[in-house]
Amino acid sequence: MPSFQLADRIKALPPYLFAQIDKVKEEVRSRGVDIISLGIGDPDMPTPDFIIDALAQSARNPANHQYPSYIGMLAFRQAVADWYKTRFGVELDPKSEVITLIGSKEGIAHFPLAFTNPGDLAIVCTPNYPVYTVTTEFLGGVVKYLPLTDDNDYLPDLDSVTSDEWRRAKMIYVNYPNNPTAATAPDAFYEKLIAIAKEFDVIVVHDAAYTEIYFDPANKPRSILEFPGGKDVAIEFHSLSKTYNMTGWRIGMAVGNPTLVAGLGKVKENMDSGAFQAVQEASIAALQQGEPYAEQFRAIYKERRDVVVKALREAGVQCRNPEASFYIWSKTPAGFASSAEFVTKIIQETGVVLTPGNGFGAPGEGYFRISLTVDSERLKEAVARISSKL
Ligand SMILES: Cc1ncc(COP(=O)(O)O)c(C=O)c1O
Q1: Do residues 77 and 319 make contact, with C-beta atoms less than 8 angstroms apart?
Q2: Which residues have a Cβ under 8 Å from the Cβ of 352 and sit 6 or more positions away?
Q3: Pairing verdict, β 367-371 and 36-37
Q4: Based on the domain organization, do 276 and 257 belong to the same domain?
Q5: Collapsing DSSP states into helix, strand and coil, what is residue 382?
Q6: Count of CB atoms within 10 A of residue 296's CB?
Q7: Counting atoms of ligand 1 from 1, which one is nearest the CA of 207?
Q8: pLDDT tens digits along 242-275
Q9: Percent of the chain whose predicted confidence (pLDDT) is above 70
Q10: 178 CB less than 6 Å from ligand 1?
């Protein structure tokens, strides 16, 4: 038998966080325990019917059965540009400043291939969505982490990076509303980041996947492209996944600086063949008519947030009351040596699946994340089960 060796870069990967949790979950489920899964950030509500109807109609068009364009249909990119104009007041040229993605994860993962050489530095705010670091590390790049903590209100200390490091840095990854901490960023943060990025020619990668899950309409999360100079330095990744409950559809977009968008396009041209056109056409409908539905989803998440924050606090668990996203970032209760120990005990003894904070990076130790992706009654039940073990 031949013996096939994985490449060193794959051997060096830590196990994907959710795969590990799934293993424990399956073991518990096999014992007949009723699982309440608050682990992964995957909306439980279905995609609105009008989007499904649009897909069904588009799927019947033979023109959509052929290879799509790798950068996406112009009609979809135009719909993205129109949506950015309406939502953020940002002008985008659909031809050069918008690209279709097969979900934003795909674009985030591919992006460094366009701009990173071995030895280049990427600055990553952490705890973080794990995909930010993977490709840089595959490419022999170096990652510098900037911790997000309660003390800095989950905003990276940009002054802690030396001028020399800024000069070496190729890109910095920021994500607001943030996964996993649910933090949001004030205007002054973006303004400062853009100024530094301009001074040192650093690419800002802004992951904006959660901008539409907010709870105060007077304080909506912002696109980095709204700020003067944003388009000079930034590429912003966005997605229909969380806004319209479309995680399974695999559709997203990258927008912003045309050189950065074109670089990503070059990679995609060589690595994939674009998103199914019927999905793009259904997504045009979502972007054009989805706002009333997004509003309903926000109301549901708000109610769930209120239920969980109240119940956790009554149980003596400290947590943030987030203004956006569908996550609750909570302190691991006293008496547990680590977040992983706490989370493992809770899964094994109650069937409630949580995510240990350090799974998103070392500064997440001492915290756990709850996803508000089950209904309020189940959330109450979940927190009651957790409290019974404290
Ligand atoms: C912060 C963040 N960015 C991006 C994504 C990827 O979303 P998608 O690939 O479905 O667009 C996720 C998914 O969980 C996420 O949490």
Answers
A1: no
A2: 35, 36, 38, 346, 382, 385, 386
A3: unpaired
A4: yes
A5: helix
A6: 12
A7: 3
A8: 999 999 999 999 999 999 999 999 999 999 999 9
A9: 99
A10: no
| Structural domain boundaries enclosing 83 | 49-290
Q: Does residue 374 sit in the same domain as residue 243?
A: no
Ligand 1 binding pocket includes 243 (Cβ within 6 Å): no
Q: Does residue 318 form part of some domain?
A: yes
Do 278 and 365 belong to one domain?
A: no
Q: Are residues 186 and 62 in the same domain?
A: yes
pLDDT at 213 over 90: yes
Regarding whether 65 and 92 lie in a shared domain, the answer is yes
Decide whether any atom of ligand 1 lies within 6 Å of the 180 Cβ. no
State the number of CA atoms in the 13 A half-sphere of 35 facing the CB: 19
* Rounded distance from Cα 242 to ligand 1 centre (Å): 8
Q: Mean per-residue pLDDT for 163-182?
A: 98
Q: Is the CB of 175 under 6 A from ligand 1?
A: yes
Q: Determine the distance separating the centroid of ligand 1 and the alpha carbon of 96, expressed in angstroms.
A: 23
- Are 186 and 218 spatial neighbours (Cβ–Cβ below 8 Å)? no
The pLDDT of 279-285, averaged and rounded, is 98
| pLDDT value at residue 40 | 86
305 within 8 A of 328, measured Cβ to Cβ: yes
The total number of structural domains in the chain stands at 2
Q: Do 201 and 342 lie in a common domain? A: no
Residues 23 and 108 in one domain: no
Residue 211 near ligand 1, beta carbon < 6 Å: no
CA 167 to ligand 1 centroid distance, Å: 29
Distance of alpha carbon 182 from alpha carbon 167, whole angstroms: 30
336-364 burial, b if ≥16 CB within 10 A, otherwise e? beebbebbbebbeebbbbbbbbbbbbebb
Residues 250 and 308 occupy one common structural domain: no
- Is the CB of 207 inside a 6 Å radius of any atom of ligand 1? yes
Confirm whether pTM is higher than 0.70: yes
pLDDT at 17 over 70: no
- Single out the residue in 290, 315, 345 at which a domain terminates: 290
Q: How many angstroms separate the alpha carbon of residue 212 from the centre of ligand 1?
A: 13
CATH code of residue 17: 3.90.1150.10
